[in-house]
Amino acid sequence: MTENIDIKNLNIEKASEMLRDGKITSVGLVEACLKNITERNGELNAILEVFSDALENAKKADEMITRGEGDQLTGIPLVIKDNIFITGKKVSASSKILENYVASYDAFVIEKLKKTGAVFIGRANMDEFAMGSSTENSAYGPTKNPFDITRVPGGSSGGSACSVAAGFCLGALGTDTGGSIRQPASFCGLVGMKPTYGGVSRRGTIAMSSSLDQIGPITKTVEDAKIIFNTIVGKDSMDATSIDLNSTGSDITGAKIGIPRDWLKEGIDADIMENFNISVEKLKKLGYEIVDIDLPYAKYSLAVYYILMPAEVSTNLSRLDGIRYGNRVEGENIFDTYKKTRSAGFGPETRRRIILGSYVLSHGYYDAYYNKAWKVRHAIEKEFEDIFKKVDFVLTPTTPSVAFKFGAKKDPLQMYLSDIFTVPANIAGVPSLSVPSGFSSEGLPYGVQFMAPLCADEKLFAISLELEENI
Fold it and tell me: What is the distance between the alpha carbons of residues 419 and 398, in angstroms, rounded to a whole number?
């Protein structure tokens, strides 16, 4: 079966149809994925661990299909980011401090996917504790971009995106705190979706920044992303931040699309702008009204993000001390144990953000930085609420450049600017989706990003599908 299944040119929607028609089996799909992993993962370093029970679970999925049970994800091979719990599997957040940690329960999204009979191939590499935009910060080495191995795949969900693009699976789960699904999806020529905050429960996910984190799909097509989203969405009684989306429907007739031109004046590559303008023209030809909009507070999103996010990081990672959780390095006393454990367990970027977060929360700086950042965040939320009374969507490039070369952004501030277009959606909590929009002269993927009002996730899929079909 394996030689007849071309995973790289197959999507979830088509594979599901073929499974139902008996043209392929889940075992065949998984074997084809494992073959690709064997051939290329040594070079790409996208998968940290291949699950030994993948074929066994594929056989169970085939039995479900034979009985006429399951849905579109039954038997579909997926890769899961290494910060989402699967019972009995290691989950390390690509950090040495959690190197041998084994999940004792399933994340909410895993519970839902298991019920459908989806097959988990393995866990994907990522920036340590989701801190990064390139997957260069993993304790287990960087993941490489399958389009050009001298370039990054994006981050922090770089392993998930690379796995889909390289044919290691048909879809993947990532987490998005400031663009960590959408940016790597764009760099790898894929669809990446961040749902409305709370629309997908975070229970069973290792927290980075609790008020910003969201789980979402990375896939080859918009329809595939929608299939995964419809499975993992839902209110969770064990997650106080989860919500019932109360979808606003999918009708986008006569929709207006806003372009925040002020964002697009500086720091963006000329070829990205050219590709973006081509996408805008295509939307015009499809009959959508394009209007220029002003979002004066949203330009401060990145500054707000790098105050609030490190503050939450320093709080969430305080439990990883080698005593309550994590590997321990013994010291002469308890303070020395803490110091040695965290020095050995945390990488440079994680330590940088913990220190920054502790600083902005410290006495004398809490009001000057943290409280002020929250006030600006509320202003940004209100600004998006108001603008979505005038337009139905906001459109920007997903990233200011194509995938960059390894080591090109050694300055942390330059790296942080990679998220300039994606962060506002997390600050405001609105849904956002990155759609592939073509290729550069070097064969590197471009992407554009839609943002929609709170709970308008279905409309976000509808507009993205329109553009995808006309690229």
Answer: 8
Domain assignments of the chain as residue spans, ordered by start = 2-232
Joined together, the tokens standing for residue 206 give 């290792």
Strands (E), 214-367: 214-219, 256-259, 289-292
Look at the domain 2-232 and name its fold: Amidase signature (AS) enzymes (3.90.1300)
For residue range 249-292, list pLDDT tens digits in order.
899 999 999 999 988 987 899 999 999 999 999 999 999 999 99
Q: Are 290 and 276 in contact (CB under 8 A)?
A: no
Residue 2 has pLDDT above 70, yes or no: no
Residues acting as catalytic residues: 81, 156, 180
Alpha helix stretches (DSSP H) within 82-181: 108-116, 158-165
What mean pLDDT do residues 320-326 have? Answer: 85
pLDDT digits (tens, 9 = 90+) for 45-61: 999 999 999 999 999 99
Q: In angstroms, rounded to a whole number, what is the distance separating the alpha carbons of residues 233 and 225?
A: 12
**pTM as predicted:** 0.97
**CB-neighbour burial class of residue 413 (10 A; exposed 0-12, middle 13-18, buried 19+):** exposed
Query: Among 191-200, 232-241, 394-403, 409-418, where is mean pLDDT lowest?
Result: 409-418
Determine contact, residues 175/157, Cβ cutoff 8 Å: yes
Sheet holding 47-50, edge to edge: 47-50, 119-124, 77-81, 171-176, 214-219, 191-194, 432-439, 445-451, 393-397, 256-259, 289-292
Taking a C-beta distance cutoff of 8 angstroms, is the pair 369, 305 a contact? no
Q: What are 151's strand-pairing partners? A: 405
- CA proximity to 178, closest of 428, 461, 453, 446: 428
| Nearest residue to 247 via CA among 453, 466, 71 | 453
Average pLDDT of the chain to the nearest whole number: 95
What is the C-alpha separation between 309 and 117, in angstroms, rounded?
A: 35
Return d(Cα 169, Cα 184) in angstroms, integer. Answer: 16
Does pLDDT of 364 surpass 90? no
Q: How far is CA 342 from the centre of its chain?
A: 26
Yes or no: say if 327 and 346 are a contact pair by the CB < 8 Å rule: no
Q: Is 114 exposed, middle or buried (0-12, 13-18, 19+ CB in 10 A)?
A: middle
DSSP 8-state code for residue 419 = G
Contact indicator for 435, 467 with CB cutoff of 8 Å: yes
Rg (CA), the chain: 21
Indicate the pLDDT class of residue 1, thresholds 50, 70 and 90.
Answer: very low
pLDDT of residue 146: 98
pLDDT of residue 336: 87
Each residue of 118-155: b (16+ CB within 10 Å) or e?
bbbbbbbbbbbbbbbbbbbbbbbebbbbbbbeebbbbb
